[in-house]
Amino acid sequence: MKNVTDSFVSLGHWPSAGSFGFNTDIFSTNLINLSVVLGVLIFFGKGVLSDLLDNRKRRILNTIRTSEELRERAIEQLEKARARLRKVEMEADQFRVNGYAEIEREKVGLITKTSQILEIVQHYQLETLQFEQEKTINQIRELVGKEAFEGAVGTLNSSLNNDNELHSRTIDDNIGMLEEKRD
């Protein structure tokens, strides 16, 4: 630091008769050169640097604003999608409930229809059974009637055979009596 102040102090003590020479102290000359360059840069580059920083700041702010808008739109779309999902889930639940109710109604309908068909089948079975019983009873009656008729015919035939003998004897007896009376 002492070299820096010495170099500034020595500037004030240069002889005006001027001899030209080189300053071989690198640190003091570099420091002076750097101060001059920085001063010029700050003086002339302040506007350019300020413009560059302002442009960069605007771009960053625009990017932030755009990303905030995109974020808000994404949040809105997410909320809409969640609302649609809830609505679809409610509709699905309603369809499921309605489907279960419809299945239950169809089940009750099928049970009722099946029981009605079963009653009709049982009724037909009962009618068929009664018909078969009547048919069997009629067949038995016919068979018994036929047997009785054949028995009666047999009895009548045997009676007639017996009666024929009886008639024949009666006739023979009557003829024999008539012949005796004639004699």
UniProtKB/TrEMBL annotation:
Pfam families: ATP-synt_B. It is a single-pass membrane protein. GO terms for cellular component: chloroplast thylakoid membrane; proton-transporting ATP synthase complex. Residues 64-98 form a coiled coil. It is found in: Membrane; Plastid, Chloroplast thylakoid membrane. Keywords: ATP synthesis, CF(0), Chloroplast, Coiled coil, Hydrogen ion transport, Ion transport, Membrane, Plastid, Thylakoid, Transmembrane, Transmembrane helix, Transport. One of its GO terms (molecular function) is proton-transporting ATP synthase activity, rotational mechanism. Its main location: membrane. The chain crosses the membrane at residues 31-49. HAMAP family: ATP_synth_b_bprime (MF_01398). F(1)F(0) ATP synthase produces ATP from ADP in the presence of a proton or sodium gradient. F-type ATPases consist of two structural domains, F(1) containing the extramembraneous catalytic core and F(0) containing the membrane proton channel, linked together by a central stalk and a peripheral stalk. During catalysis, ATP synthesis in the catalytic domain of F(1) is coupled via a rotary mechanism of the central stalk subunits to proton translocation. Component of the F(0) channel, it forms part of the peripheral stalk, linking F(1) to F(0). F-type ATPases have 2 components, F(1) - the catalytic core - and F(0) - the membrane proton channel. F(1) has five subunits: alpha(3), beta(3), gamma(1), delta(1), epsilon(1). F(0) has four main subunits: a(1), b(1), b'(1) and c(10-14). The alpha and beta chains form an alternating ring which encloses part of the gamma chain. F(1) is attached to F(0) by a central stalk formed by the gamma and epsilon chains, while a peripheral stalk is formed by the delta, b and b' chains. In plastids the F-type ATPase is also known as CF(1)CF(0). Belongs to the ATPase B chain family. This is ATP synthase subunit b, chloroplastic.
